[in-house]
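Subject: DNA-binding transcriptional regulator, AcrR family structure
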Amino acid sequence: MKNNTEIVSKTKQNLIDAFWHLYCEKRIEKITIKEITVKAGYNRSTFYEYFTDIYDVLEQIENSLIPSLDELPPISILNKNNEIPLNMFLKLYEQNEKYYSVLLGDNGDPAFASKLKNSIKPLLKEALVKDTKLNDLEFDFVLEYILSSMISIMSYWFKNDKILPSDKLIFIMKNIMENGIQGIFNK
């Protein structure tokens, strides 16, 4: 017989799955609690045992997808070659593809990209700060540029059904970061 913790966990996950199914089809403003509970097979009061509203469901999903600093590679790995570990970021994206492709897509949550960048930025900052001559403000803009471009190109790659092999995508990203746009076209 299942214990209460398993039942609670399963109920919450069923509600999350029902929400996610609807969120993949339409914007959050168009989703109702009634739709979620009907799809999951529960009543409205069960929904409120786990969530305050529809936005709370989305927030809990997003928070579960944001890597904490202890889930990212140690700084020593980053510093070994003074490179940004693009394959690590690609793996993170692939592990969460079901969610990232929607959340970072055209109809996703614009705030999610910021949350994702803010979770990774301290690690990159610590790894790259020793090699910079930029002041803190300038360096922050560079980090924002790097993370925004990485998230955008990976989103574009998934949106286009991974049309390039992953090693080719990483090669292109690394080449742009090391040589800039002009360096790519002048080779």
